[in-house]
Amino acid sequence: MPFLSLGLLPTFAQAASALGYVEPTPIQVQSIPVILTGADVLGSAQTGSGKTVAFALPLLQRLQSLPTENRHQYGRAVRSLIVVPTRELAAQVGDVVRSLSQALTPPPKVVVATGGVSINPQMMALRGGADVLVATPGRLLDLAGQNAVQLATVRLLVLDEADRLLDLGFADELAKVLTLLPPRRQSLFFSATFPEGVRELATRMLRDPVHVTVEATELHEPEIAQRAIAVDANQRTQLLRHLIKDQGWKRVLVFVATKYTAELVAEKLYKAKVFATAFHGDLSQGARKQVLAEFKDEQWEVVITTDLASRGIDIAKLPVVVNYDLPRSAVDYVHRIGRTGRAGESGLAVSFVSADTEAHFHLIEKRQGLSLPLEHIAGFEPTEVATPIVAQAAPDNGGIKGKRPSKKDKLRAAAALAKPT
Ligand code: AMP
């Protein structure tokens, strides 16, 4: 199905083709015609589904048809506002909007405003207003507080990754932003998951929304091969190094639990002549941008990161993701592995599972409806045993949720006891 058949004007359909998109993804097929009618949208879409283009393209076309504010009256008028949870996602969404705008005359003015960098250039950029403002909530409120931006003129509002916005504690900021917006506007709301807080926010924000849902599996999941490898916790760095060499992995995104581990593992790999670097929230905004750009350019083989990079980061053709530390939840697991296998590319997601995380891994598997064989790699066979004390002390009921010893645990515990010392 061509983009043109979605109700887009030729210039806008061509803007998509110019970026190399041959046909629209399912979320684009569903959302674009609805957004073009001016209706509110409640979109349920996973990362990697093509949802940025799904809202950006019709947003740009709608802006062209909507009247422009009197610039003298509203010197800092913003016509459309896209609120996102992280700086990286803001930069990425800004890039997509700018790329799609290239062929438009006059080109819309796009401003990206996020924290972590000086506010002054953003205040300057907002002089004379903007057609599209992409912003994170905190910086947006700072700008509004300093009268650097006029939100009463917003015709179109997009809330992207609403669940992540709430996870990151932006509920109060979002409530304040909503009070600054005019009641008459078109609102588009996207989220990967819909826990209660997200549903409430959607109800508050939207008017008779059209629901648009794309199943998580539709576009990408079948493309991602998932593997789980059993390994002792203290052998993980060595195993990672071994796999990188042995499997010839060229670009790997590795998830760890803390900034400290990210630095430590990156340093160890680097000393072992693997081009690895860390990426986390303690780096300055400039350093974060640089690492991402260099990773895209294939200057780094491995980037070790916290969950900071689990959402909203689009590194085209990222072939491998490794869970060095397991994610806390099944939802985070989906977001992490969604960093690979994007836009129809195939990808590989490998999880390291050690004795003390095996029960947690099984919980993630259960939530995902997965059942992965726990592989052993020659030379890295695990020697630690999953929670043998629990296995002995409470053989029948386990007592602790998620720690109940499995048959395998019991066999391992028995084997460990039988081992000569
Ligand atoms: P998103 O879900 O917006 O993060 O997009 C995920 C990836 O899909 C990005 O790399 C986009 O460039 C790509 N993409 C968006 N629309 C299309 C399309 N119609 N065909 C192929 N790739 C697309």
Give a brief description.
The chain is an alpha/beta fold and 421 residues long. The protein has helices at residues 10-18, 26-36, 51-65, 87-101, 120-125, 137-145, 162-167, 171-180, 196-205, 236-246, 259-271, 285-296, 330-337, 358-368, 388-393, 407-418, and strands at residues 41-44, 78-83, 110-113, 130-135, 156-159, 186-191, 210-213, 224-230, 252-255, 276-279, 302-305, 320-323, 347-353, 374-375.
Give the end-to-end Cα distance, rounded to a whole number of Å. Answer: 67 Å
Sequence of secondary-structure elements: HHEHEHEHEHEHHEHEEHEHEHEEHEHEHH
- Going by CATH, the homologous superfamily of the largest domain would be P-loop containing nucleotide triphosphate hydrolases
Strand order of the largest sheet: 3-4-2-5-6-1-7
**Rg, alpha carbons:** 24 Å
Say what the CATH topology of the largest domain is: Rossmann fold
Bound molecules: adenosine monophosphate
Give the integer mean of the pLDDT values.
85
Task: Assign the structural class, choosing from mainly alpha, mainly beta, alpha/beta, alpha+beta, or little secondary structure.
Answer: alpha/beta
Instruction: Please tell me what the overall shape is.
Output: globular
Report the sheet-strand fraction: 15-25%
Q: Major β-sheet, in short? A: 7 strands, parallel
Number of domains: 2
The helix count comes to: 16
- The CATH first-level class of the largest domain comes to Alpha Beta
Helical proportion? Answer: 25-40%
Total E-strand runs? 14
- Low-confidence spans: pLDDT under 50, at least 5 residues? 217-222, 389-403, 417-421
CATH architecture grouping of the largest domain: 3-Layer(aba) Sandwich
